[in-house]
Design a protein that fits this description.
With about 250 residues, the chain is an alpha+beta fold. Strands 2, 3, 6, 7, 8 and 9 form a six-stranded mixed β-sheet that branches. It is globular. The termini are far apart.
């Protein structure tokens, strides 16, 4: 009879842990050595965010990620805006996560609730939205109202040159603006790199007088988060294209 490694204790209120408690929890996980080293990088002030990302990458099911992410969206007001009276009623509409089709490519599991309009999501998450609520938008695909998606936030091609076709390849699609907001709801520091990341959300676009523009979520000069639309020519090297598995 072989000795089976016991799982670490599961903190169901993980996002309320102190940094020291989070580090102790990380030590108990079978994380890759290079990923574990990141936990001690001084520039990363939000150790909880990093640890949740690593856990999501490993599909660490003992944390019941479905319930945790649903609670985050509920606390943001999304369930109430949809008309649900309590979190249990909202949770009943949330499906189970699907397996990661390509862990080397997609490192984030995100609950994408698409049942609200873009301007509603921005209001609830305190993201500045620079369009009229009635402005027509172009969306890439007809997708389920709510599902879990496996994605990457765009930092893989941060500072990388190349056309949009070279950045978004087979087996993936550009994330929509609502999906990007759902990612932002789960990890509010997703745009906080040492030199910041502008997250291009190619799945949501609009037509302008100079051509097609893509939704981009970014940190403004005052530190606030905003969502606006830019042409491919207007996007600088800080912009990374967020994608998800198809």
């Amino acid at each position: 009879m072989t000795d089976e490694k016991k799982p670490p204790p599961v903190p169901f209120e993980f996002d309320r842990m102190t940094d020291a408690e989070a580090i102790e929890f990380v030590k108990q996980l079978d994380l890759p050595r290079e990923a574990f080293a990141l936990a001690y990088t001084p520039s990363l002030t939000k150790i909880r965010d990093l640890t949740l990302t690593l856990i999501g990458r490993m599909e660490f099911s003992r944390l019941n990620e479905r319930n945790r992410q649903a609670e985050v969206l509920w606390e943001a007001g999304i369930g109430r805006e949809l008309g649900y009276s309590g979190i249990q009623a909202y949770l009943a509409t949330i499906p189970e996560p699907r397996p990661n089709p390509d862990p080397k490519r997609f490192d984030r599991l995100v609950l994408a609730d698409r049942r609200l309009q873009l301007h509603q999501m921005c209001r609830l998450l305190n993201v500045a939205y620079h369009l009229n609520a009635a402005a027509p938008l172009l969306q890439d695909a007809d997708l389920p109202p709510v599902e879990f998606i496996w994605c990457q936030d765009g930092r893989r091609d941060h500072y990388r040159s190349g056309t949009i076709d070279e950045r978004i390849t087979d087996g993936e699609r550009g994330m929509s603006a609502v999906e990007g907001l759902c990612l932002y709801a789960q990890q509010r520091t997703v745009l906080h790199l040492p030199d910041n990341l502008d997250m291009a959300l190619r799945g949501t676009r609009r037509t302008t007088v100079i051509g097609e523009a893509t939704a981009v979520m970014r940190r403004g000069v005052s530190g606030c988060t905003d969502l606006d639309f830019y042409s491919l020519m207007q996007m600088g090297p800080l912009c990374g294209f967020a994608t998800c598995a198809t």
